[in-house]
Amino acid sequence: MFIKRDDLLHGAFSGNKARKFAYFLQHDFPSVTTLVGYGSPQANSLYALTALAALKGWQLKFYVDHVASYIHQHPAGNYRAALALGAEIIDLSQCIDRQGLSCHDYIAAQAWSLHQDVLVVPEGGRCHQAQYGIDQLADEIIHWQQEQLRAPLRVVLPSGTGTTALYLQRRFWARKVDIQVYTAATVGGDSYLHQQFAELEADSNCYPKVVSLGQKYHYGKLYPQCLSVWQLACECGIEFDLLYDPVGLILLAQLLDKYPNGDVMYLHQGGLLGNETMLPRYQRKYPEKFLS
């Protein structure tokens, strides 16, 4: 098997989110001074957007539903790194004009997208602009396959919104190459992923294969199976993300059993800063799994 090391793209801008936000990094926005995003205070997208803003000379305003007092008092992971780079993290639970609105609806009510000097990026980079960087990723994989492998290839990755898996498969399908994308849901389930695909692409012929792992995963929840596969995978000498990668690695193990003689590529998700907060949570909940 092979591992695509997208965790090594850039010291401050790597992994899945770097691919999704590549369009904004590599294009000029001469009037933009402020970047607006939203999501979890420990989301990989928070740090990726902060790094993007720093590279472009912009200010980031990032909206969150709530920042727990422990996180506020003991910054770590993506939250700590984003603050250090100058992100303005706005806790909507402290905003008296919120009126029960979600982050998305609050931003819409502020009409940020109508300001010429403001660029609003949807949660997690789920937008059509993400296709730009994911097409670049797909072309890198196609070039490698044609130069080095010269055989059919299966590309494996976990999915949140499924944007990366969808755009990868669509690019492979458009270029008529023998590469199939396999993915599994880290949020919700299979039907949720297909719903997300349909909102971005009507033609189901270019959808990736969604593999059911037998249970639904909830964002940020701790699972002993995820910890076990993460520990096993890290023994190869590469650290993986603890939020998304474990689900992808469980899928990878299934495919390696199914295709023992096939060529499989795992797409590293990056986001290693999140391990600063995820790993201590696992250590507190499953201390027996850390005994030497």
Task: Furnish the topology, listing elements before pairings.
Layout: E1 2-4, H1 15-20, H2 22-26, E2 34-38, H3 44-56, E3 59-64, H4 69-73, H5 77-84, E4 88-91, H6 103-109, E5 118-120, H7 130-149, E6 153-159, H8 163-174, E7 179-185, H9 190-200, E8 209-210, H10 224-234, H11 245-258, E9 264-267, H12 275-285
Parallel strand pairs: 1-9, 2-3, 2-5, 3-4, 6-7, 6-9, 7-8
Helix pairs in contact: 3-5, 7-8, 10-11
What does this protein structure show overall?
The protein has 292 residues and is α/β, with parallel strands linked by helices. The protein has helices at 15-20, 22-26, 44-56, 69-73, 77-84, 103-109, 130-149, 163-174, 190-200, 224-234, 245-258, 275-285; strands at residues 2-4, 34-38, 59-64, 88-91, 118-120, 153-159, 179-185, 209-210, 264-267. Strands 1-9-6-7-8 form a five-stranded parallel β-sheet, sandwiched between helices. Helix 3 (44-56) packs parallel to helix 5. The longest helix is centred in the middle third of the chain and has 20 residues, at 130-149. The radius of gyration is 19 Å and the shape is globular. It starts with a strand and ends in a 7-residue tail after the last helix.
Keywords, please?
alpha/beta; 14% strand; 292 residues; globular; 9 strands; four-stranded parallel beta sheet
Largest sheet: 5 strands, parallel
How many beta-strand segments?
A: 9
**Helical percent range?**
40-55%
Number of helices: 12
Shape: globular
Mean pLDDT: 94
Q: How much of the polypeptide forms β-strand, as a percent range?
A: 5-15%
Question: Order of strands across the widest beta sheet?
Answer: 1-9-6-7-8
What is the CA–CA distance across the termini? 29 Å
